[in-house]
Every structure is written in C-alpha cells, then in structure tokens.
Amino acid sequence: MKKILFLFPFFLLCCYTQASGRKVEIVENDAYVSANEDANKKVLKRKVAIGRFSNETQYAKGVFYDKENDPMGKQALDILSSKLAASGKFLLLERSDLSKLLEENKINGNDLSSTIGADYLIIGSITEYGRKNVGTQGVFSSTKMQVVEAAVSIRLVDVASGLIIYSDEAKGEAQTTSKTTLGFGGVAGFDATLSDKAISEAIGQLVENIINKCTDKPWRTYFLSYDNEAKLIAGGKSQGLTSGIVLSVKAKGKKVKNPQTGIMIELPGKEVATATILMSDGDTPETEYSMVEVNGGEIDANNLSNYYLEEK
Predict the structure, then answer these.
(1) Is 70 within 8 Å of 114 (Cβ atoms)?
(2) 3-state secondary structure (DSSP) of residue 240
(3) What pTM value is reported for the model?
(4) What is the C-alpha separation between 122 and 17, in angstroms, rounded?
(5) I need a surface site. Which of 78, 202, 271, 287 has the fewest CB within 10 A?
(6) How far is residue 80's CA from residue 128's CA, in Å, rounded to a whole number?
(7) pLDDT at position 8
(8) What is the number of other CB atoms lying within 10 angstroms of the CB of residue 231?
(9) Residue 97 pLDDT level (bands cut at 50, 70, 90)
(10) What is the model's pLDDT at position 160?
C-alpha cells in the first residue's frame, strides 16, 4: 500500500509535465510560423532625408564655435541614421545642404519632393543638455555619480504635402558611478561616452514613432518614361524592387482646398491598371529605375504626372 501511495504523486507529475509540454510546443510553433511570415514579407524602402540636426543648447559654444560643424549635432545625426538604417525599412539620404535646396525651391517654384528627392524629411535638434556630479560621503566610504541629461526634438515632414506629420520631444539620461572605501577604489574623470548614451536614449524613444508614421502610407513611385520601347518607373533594387513585384497604377485624385485648414489636399486616386516589375538598373539610389509591364487600362503617355504607382 505504501508503494502505491508513493508512485501515485509521481504518476500525476508525469501527466502534468507531458500536458504542459504539448501546450508549450504549440505556442512555439505558432511563433515560429509568425516569425517566418514577417521575414518573408517584402519591404519596399521609403526614401528618408535627414535635413539637419542642430545643437540649440549653449554647451560647447565657445568663441570659435562653428554652427555648420557642431560636433553634438553631427553626433545626434549619426545616431539617428544608424537606428533608422537598422530597421531595414528606409533608404537614407543626407541633405546637409537643406537650406540651399529650400531656397532654390522657393525661387524656382519647384515641387518640394523633386527638389529634396525623398518621401519624408526629418529635422531634429538637441534642445537641452547638461551634466552634473552627485554623490554621498560616509565615514568609511564615498560614492560619486556622473550624470548626463539630454533632450531631443524631432519633426517629420511629408515632402509631397509639406505637412509636419509627426513632432515630439524625448529626454534621455546616462550615468556612471565610482566608489571608494577607506581611500581605496576607482576615481574616474568625466566619461565622454555618457553624452552619446544620453542622446541615443532620447532618440531611441522617438524612432519607433518615426518608423510607424513613415510606413503608415503605402510605398509610392512615379513613371519616368512611357512608350513602345520601354515603360520605366523611378526606384530599383536599393528600395526593394525585384522582378515579379506587382504595383497598382493609380490616376491622381483631384486637389481640393480643405476649408478647415486652408491647405490644398489631394483626394484618393483611382486604380486604372497594374504594373509588374521586369528588371531594375541604375548606378545610385537617386538614379535607379525599373522597367515594367503595364496591364489593364489606358495610360495617357503625354500626362504621366497624373499617375503614380503604389504597392498593393
């Protein structure tokens, strides 16, 4: 009888373990399938231009300060670029000469998107920066903490409409601690890497929102040429265009004035045909193009600016 009672809890434990194992296996398989679906999904990269990243604080602004070569501004720009590039969803274009491009656009009356050559424009600034030392002094030991705080502001502009579609500010902090006991321990000078870490933390809080805003709208491109010899569109391999991808060809909707804001807006377009990518070519992301086969409705080759192509 004692042997039976001893084996009974062990039998229950085995049953419970097996049941739990089956449940976990199902969850893992579902996650594996979901991960594979995400990995196989084709991502068409948006062209994003980082116009400028300025330092609006008084830090490191001495007599010989050069606004065009501010080290903190360049530092923030590099951090933002690397984080956006790591997402794999963008083709990044640096527009350090943004002020000149905007002035040229104003004088010549060009379309802003053709002047900048991107779908979205990012303008950022470091609005706050400070560092301090704090610590405690005991009978036998003392602790010293170095703290750096930074605040970063970001504006995201939809180049086609010229509207700011996202604007926000975030703060980041980085710190390091040194401790001594009875005169023994580390005594560290100022850690310069804390600046990088604080700015990186602040930018990291904004990157996800930037990615979501840029990918809210379907990827879009335009015709370059349309005749019997070849039908060409802007964009190529660097943006993810490969043979076999099918795009929707749409006629632009009419432009109307929004009575609430006084801004001209474009109404949704209507699909008139489809275009299948045949091949891509070009030396740089700015000069890449793709040859397409168009199926469906008629395209007015004399008014190609009335059409755009969009991912389905």
Answers:
(1) no
(2) coil
(3) 0.71
(4) 53
(5) 287
(6) 17
(7) 42
(8) 20
(9) low
(10) 79
Lowest mean pLDDT among 4-13, 135-144, 195-204, 224-233: 4-13
Nearest-angstrom CA–CA distance, 85 and 12: 52
- What stretch(es) of the chain map to CATH 2.40.10? 220-311
Q: How far apart are CA 181 and CA 175, in angstroms?
A: 20
Query: Rounded to the nearest 5 degrees, what angle is found at the Cα of 311, between the Cα atoms of 221 and 208?
Result: 90
Q: Give the chain's length.
A: 312
Reply yes or no on whether the pLDDT at 256 is more than 50: yes
Alpha helix (H) residue ranges in the chain: 2-40, 71-86, 98-108, 112-116, 193-214
| DSSP per residue, 45-112 | PEEEEEEEEEE-SSTT--TT--GGG-HHHHHHHHHHHHHHHHTT-EEEEE-TTHHHHHHHHHHHT--H
**Strand 46-55 versus strand 120-137 pairing type:** parallel
Tens digit of each residue's pLDDT (9 = 90 or more) over 259-308: 988 888 888 899 999 999 999 999 888 889 999 999 988 899 999 999 99
**Tens of pLDDT, residues 132-160:** 877 666 656 677 888 899 999 999 988 87
Of 83, 77, 28, 23, the closest CA to residue 55 belongs to 77
pLDDT 10s digits, 175-187: 887 776 655 555 5
- CATH 3.40.50.10610 positions along the chain are 46-214
Query: Which position has the token pair 């926000």?
Result: 168
Residue 182: predicted pLDDT: 55
Q: Is 247 left (phi over 0), alpha (psi -120 to 50) or beta?
A: beta
The CATH classification of domain 46-214, taken from the options 3.90.370.10, 3.40.50.2300, 3.40.50.10610, 3.40.309.10:
3.40.50.10610
Sign of the dihedral defined by the CA atoms of residues 179, 185, 191, 196, in that order: negative
Number of other residues whose CB lies within 10 A of the CB of residue 205: 15
Q: Which two tokens stand for residue 56?
A: 């609006």
Q: Please identify which residue in the block is written with the tokens 């850690």.
A: 191
